[in-house]
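Subject: Sanity check before I submit

Could someone independently write out the structure tokens for this chain? I want to compare against mine line by line before I put it in a report. The sequence has 235 residues.
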Amino acid sequence: LVHLTTLNEETILETLSGRFGGHTTWTWVGTMCIAVNPYQWFPHLYSREAMLTYMRAVDAHAELPPHVFTVARRALESLINGGESQSILVSGESGAGKTESVKIAMNYLACVDGERGGGRMNATTAQVLQTNPLLEAFGNAQTVHNDNSSRFGKYIQLRYDSTAAQSGGHIATYLLERSRVVGQQEGERNFHVMYAVSGRAVGESGGAARPAVPGASACSYLNSGGGGAVEGGEG
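---
Independent answer below. Compare away.
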């Protein structure tokens, strides 16, 4: 975008609209990366082969199309070469693709870590990636804008040792929208985990099954918003 002859709101939106129509998700603004949520998945953009292409390029920013992989690569290289902690800030309105962008960046870092370790992902990296579904179950919900909207803030810290291998991680959550537990706006739902639990039988240690947890339709806390079913949100 910095190469536009005329830089104003109209030309920026026109450029992003054109790239969106061409299924181009990412756009550079200097070293910042703008993501326009395509609301569909393009496997070739996020495959292992694509990750390795961005990892092995001499200058991914100059040689390859804009991608969050390059953002993650630059942060990792700055950490290794400069010896200073790095941060990636992901910001945007509901439905912009923040959660997916973070997962894509983390998968890239996991891929790089695995390549450095002889092609095998270490246990620490695997555990960090496996926290995403759990956090989303307890902290995400359907809203009028997004079927899987994060209703909390998340700070993920990945720790590396002197050999540039991931050695640990820490996840802090904050500002959870607790009011959603007892009531939702029209067309919205409670947190995903509530519907995963509702309607399920609970087994006792003796083998006998207690009565099933009431279904969502019988719980006022779960149906006050009248939101519909969410694909993949109740498993």
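---
OP: Matches mine. For the report I'm noting this point. Residues 98-116 form the longest helix (19 residues).
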